């Protein structure tokens, strides 16, 4: 990534200011930034600040979108993480023909935000970058995924199943709960990594004589360009990346669709695991109401759930949850998590504004 | 480890030679070296070369024992691995009052020997160190563990269950087979790592609301000096060492003995996994004969099997194997694997000598 000298990244604002003055504009449009960051990249969208009296249009209007590298400080260190965030926000504002002075709120949902200290560090970075009037909201990336399906409303549950898996839920009065998301050693078995690791294990077991024959063996070996199950050991431990192993999920799905019983069992078990994460969150937050039948949104995100083939893992997970909670209302988000983050910022501002209005009415009455 | 200049490590031999001459000895005693190396240390024992006509005394006579660091080239690199091997052999010979010229055979059973290239590299090191008359045998470390229970005879099956697990077997006519030993990603679930990872998972699941209450949670947290199951995620991923996680096995055993159902299920599953590895090897090699009732030795090695508490994992594994193969004859080795390696070398030499005798008789008749 190109390194900018202090502040140089924002030089475009001066030119833009002069251009706006030249064009005779007297007031600039107020905007909101929404950011979503995982371990591979960071996305920032710029959205106009719509009036709080109206409901949000669907799809929400987006002025611009920018992409930068990883902003998870655990992966790339603090300097690179901060640089990625500043770069992606400057890029989005520049593309939108806007500046930092037009920004009313920033909602930043990045992986690696687990402790109040993580949140405080990011808030300090944002305070250095933006004028003092800007409001900041720092969240875990699962929260942006939920908001991407609920038009920014923090209510319901989100199930993410990509390389890893997590279920995260919120009640309307602000309580939250999570399940899974603890990584493979601690049993995230419905994740892409979990499914693929089970498939690799099944191939080794069949070769050892500990498990039944499975078509997974030949299909995985072909996919990895290996000639014997012996070589799977070396392949597996040569690179500790979970995503590399999770990339074998499509092989498992196609074997299951071809009728392989071992592959089918792995996917059925994954469905139970994913459903049990959601059920645990729903139960703890009583999202289903006292009688267990209240409707609640379930936002479904991630490669494992989106496959939508003959063997549709996402659909089976919903069926399994529906048996216990008939009010489940599944949502496949039509917008990306960064837009979810922007919508979240809009909702926070709207709530704040309603509270202010209420307060001034109370004073004047 | 202290580094020796080329050959300096063997300086003791000259002094010993002069001393022997001074004492009026005309012939030196012939010896054998047995080495066992895992990822933590390397052990070498020096054994006198006993006459092949006699059967081996039990326990076998050992002249000396030496210990050095890790000799697995995958862990410490080639130079350090070679240095560790040379140091431990020189130390054992020096302690036995012997020299390289007295050595008739070296059996080296070290972890990390999986391919012919690994074997060839170690053979080259040994050829540089010893005179040309010395015979070398390079094996996987599971083979020394088997030999430690069978007085050096390569027949039967060995089950190792420490941090990892593997089952390895040999027929009397030299065929071999293995099961498991593929590491945690590929499903070595009966291993110490496997048992402990399941226990950690159970604690996280109980906390999430995905699994039942278990006494494992409070006992693991107390053992690790943590205050909340949340902190288990950070603890688990802060250090990728499998042995660190496997060290939690005693907590699981004591919870199971205290009546915890989740801990009991983890141990029962581990028993099934370990037994299934042995059964797969026995079946493939037909160690149980055609009718399935022939006797065969099963050598049991490693912390998971040796606990010998109220909840005795090793005993349960044997019971489980006995149901399918009534001829199983369990052996807990009375000697360490390095002695197994020395006995193996003696057996190889004895077989070689019998073949030579047979050949000379054929010529003379």
From TrEMBL, chains A, B:
EC number: 2.7.1.59
SUPFAM superfamilies in the cross-refs: Actin-like ATPase domain
Pfam families documented for this protein: BcrAD_BadFG
Domain ATPase BadF/BadG/BcrA/BcrD type, chain residue ranges per copy: 33-345
Coiled coil: none
One MF annotation (Gene Ontology) recorded for this entry: N-acetylglucosamine kinase activity
Family: Belongs to the eukaryotic-type N-acetylglucosamine kinase family.
Protein name: N-acetyl-D-glucosamine kinase
Native species: Nicotiana tabacum
């Amino acid at each position: 990534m190109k390194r900018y000298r202090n502040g140089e990244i924002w030089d475009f604002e001066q030119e833009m200011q002069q251009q706006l003055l030249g064009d005779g504009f007297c007031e600039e449009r107020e905007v909101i930034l929404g950011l979503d960051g995982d371990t591979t990249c960071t996305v920032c969208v710029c959205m106009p600040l719509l009036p709080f009296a109206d409901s949000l249009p669907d799809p929400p209007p987006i002025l611009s979108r920018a992409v930068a590298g990883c902003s998870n400080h655990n992966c790339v260190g603090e300097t690179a993480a901060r640089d990625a965030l500043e770069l992606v926000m400057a890029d989005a504002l520049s593309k939108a023909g806007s500046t930092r002075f037009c920004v009313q709120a920033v909602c930043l949902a990045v992986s690696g935000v687990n402790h109040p200290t993580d949140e405080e560090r990011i808030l300090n970075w944002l305070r250095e970058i933006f004028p003092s009037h800007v409001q900041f909201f720092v969240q875990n990336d699962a929260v942006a995924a939920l908001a991407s399906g609920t038009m920014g409303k923090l209510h319901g549950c989100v199930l993410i199943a990509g390389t890893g898996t997590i279920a995260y839920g919120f009640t309307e009065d602000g309580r939250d709960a999570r399940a899974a998301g603890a990584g493979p050693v601690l049993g995230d078995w419905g994740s892409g990594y979990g499914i693929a690791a089970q498939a690799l294990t099944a191939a080794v077991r069949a070769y050892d004589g500990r498990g039944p024959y499975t078509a997974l063996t030949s299909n995985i070996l072909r996919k990895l360009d290996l000639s014997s199950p012996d070589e799977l050991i070396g392949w597996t431990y040569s690179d500790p990346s979970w995503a590399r192993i999770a990339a074998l999920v499509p092989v498992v799905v196609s074997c299951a669709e071809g009728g392989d019983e071992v592959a089918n069992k792995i996917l059925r078990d994954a469905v139970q695991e994913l459903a049990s994460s959601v059920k645990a969150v729903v139960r703890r937050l009583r999202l289903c109401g006292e009688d267990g039948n209240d409707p609640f949104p379930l936002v479904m995100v991630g490669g494992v759930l989106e496959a939508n083939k003959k063997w549709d893992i996402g659909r089976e997970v919903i069926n399994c949850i529906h048996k216990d909670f008939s009010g489940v209302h599944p949502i496949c988000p039509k917008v990306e998590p960064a837009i979810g983050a922007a919508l979240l910022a809009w909702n926070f501002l709207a709530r704040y504004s309603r509270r202010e209005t209420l307060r001034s009415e109370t004073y004047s009455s």
